């Protein structure tokens, strides 16, 4: 095993990488976008965007990461001997690192809310209530944000195999089990069938709607943790003999599957809530989405089903916390890998330092919530991530030597040059992905 550490098994990597991809972007963000964009039409276009755009960029990150065995800044800076391109690579990696730090900053706040609602549901299940847990306040937000960052830092400080992999192989099966149980339970409640119809029957007239397409692309990039180096860093820990295209496909399929499963849970649950007298539509007739969905509609639903409701609520928010944690450890690993690789900082010390840095940024956001929370989300996920994905395509398609890429892929798949992946991916990442991402980004600015 190298000094940097490696994933000890294929399933360990797939669950860790899928865990990075499977976060609040799937469990919260995906159903929210489904509700906002007319149900099944969005589901269909999300699947298209995930396979046509997100998977090729995911593969670019994994291949670069394993070949260079380095953090994002050093990896992109070493793709070319040209001094100007090297500086561009270092600059891009630095922007990616800053982006992921700010994503983790707002993410930790939201994840803290999930912990608070989990504790509230569990306490109510045991027969007592603590109203502070569900009241929006600086003290509540700061307390649980700090707790979540402590959990994240604790896992990352353990290293690749003993920290990230060890916890991922425990948390991910738990997540799958909870979500399947909840889907089965909700599906047998009155009103669920209407939710299934809204989720599965597309309105084809909305398929090419600009807003829907932009949201579908953004959701695909955000849910797969693309553009900010998480998959690149995880790729740097993959063993040399692994088949990268198959590993990448496994990660993408698990991520997409969980997003679709989350929709199977939350959209029918909204219609069950409506059947139980909970308001699920806005004044304009659109389904309620965002934080109102997670923290108002669904808790109101749980409250209508008596004692069993608190059990379901506890399971649901446990699901949300697990999903958040599996993603946050990959986010924190990006800057930690840089301090460990480039600066020679000991891993536990690096994890502590960066957890504190993120805590400070999160605290500033909490203290200026109305001004900063939405702004940070918009800058990082709507603008920075797609642009970073665009630049990664340029590096993988135009800067990095094609023979070096083929040599790297051959380590895990002899004869890969004869397969479908190599016949499509090089020109696809070179021409199609940059053009489509640039066009979609332009549409997002003018929509």
The CATH homologous superfamily is named Amino acid/polyamine transporter I
Structural class comes to: mainly alpha
The main sheet comes to: none
Low-confidence stretches: none
Instruction: Categorize the overall geometry.
Output: globular
The number of E-state strands comes to: 0
What is the helix tally? 17
As for the CATH topology, it is Amino acid/polyamine transporter I
The amount of beta strand, in percent, is under 5%
For the termini, the CA-CA separation is 50 Å
Mean pLDDT: 89
Rg of Cα set = 21 Å
Count of spatially separate domains:
1
Q: What is the CATH first-level class name? A: Mainly Alpha
Binned, the helix content reads over 70%
CATH architecture assignment: Up-down Bundle
Give the ordered list of helices and strands: HHHHHHHHHHHHHHHHH
Organism: Glaciecola nitratireducens (strain JCM 12485 / KCTC 12276 / FR1064)
Subcellular location: Membrane
Protein name: Sodium-dependent symporter family protein
Membrane topology: Multi-pass membrane protein
Question: Could you walk me through the main structural features you see in this protein, from its secondary elements to its overall organization?
Answer:
It is a multi-pass membrane protein. One of its GO terms (cellular component) is membrane. InterPro entries: Na/ntran_symport, SNS_sf, YocR/YhdH-like. There is one protein chain. The chain has a single domain, classed as Amino acid/polyamine transporter I, CATH 1.20.1740.10. The protein is built from 17 helices and no strands. The protein has helices at 10-21, 24-36, 40-68, 72-77, 83-125, 138-157, 160-187, 192-200, 210-223, 230-235, 244-275, 291-303, 306-342, 347-367, 369-399, 402-410, 420-446.
